[in-house]
């Protein structure tokens, strides 16, 4: 945790999702140790989506659909594309979406997330939550597929604080290179928000 654990717990416990599907997904994530973005970031994704009113959200790394479900819930008139290597988890995501009545707002695509995303143009929100060593490749490959005025949101961009290490491992190096790219590229205006494990939010200027 990046923030004081008591503060993190305080923020976490300020809300309980009213939607029983989200609660079930949280339980599953906690029970199996599967790294969902969890409630604090989920609510952040929901608010950003409500403000932005995107037509197309593409998610890199969807697991069993927790983050994608928050996006879909907030969509008025658009769709979210969920991607993952694991067809089994995507099938589970599809079941959650079906039970929650959100199936019409989503597409589920199994395979390499970057390859799948590169088949979409005019992406309004690109959400990145795959292997950390692939973040920079993801944005380099997909930057022209994002609309001007579109957003990039990337999870784990403080990587349990390992970004401060002098001799970072491969994943940490990936995150650091991605953060530096997003802050130095003149096409993007970025901020790194220290909620949970760090969330980078970036606006595509041109
Ligand atoms: C952190 S989890 C995603 C959690 C999800 N965003 C959520 O909050 O519920 C990362 C997922 O990305 C998938 N993944 C990692 N690299 C990938 C890639 N290059 N292409 C497709 N899926 C990938 C893994 O299989 C894993 O399910």
Structural write-up:
The chain has 206 residues and is an alpha/beta fold. The chain has one domain: Vaccinia Virus protein VP39 (Rossmann fold, 3-Layer(aba) Sandwich). It is 42% helix and 21% strand. The chain has eight helices and seven strands. The protein has helices spanning 5-12, 20-32, 38-52, 66-74, 87-99, 113-117, 135-142, 170-184, and strands at 56-60, 79-84, 106-110, 123-128, 146-155, 188-193, 199-204. A seven-stranded mixed β-sheet has the order 3-2-1-4-5-7-6, sandwiched between helices. Helix 4 links the parallel strand 1 (56-60) and strand 2. Helix 3 (38-52) runs parallel beside helix 4 (66-74). The longest helix is centred in the first third of the chain and has 15 residues, at 38-52. It is globular, with a radius of gyration of 16 Å. 40% of the residues are buried. The mean pLDDT is 97.
**Total beta strands:** 7
Q: Give the strand order of the largest sheet, numbering strands 1, 2, ... along the chain.
A: 3-2-1-4-5-7-6
Shape: globular
CATH architecture: 3-Layer(aba) Sandwich
Radius of gyration: 16 Å
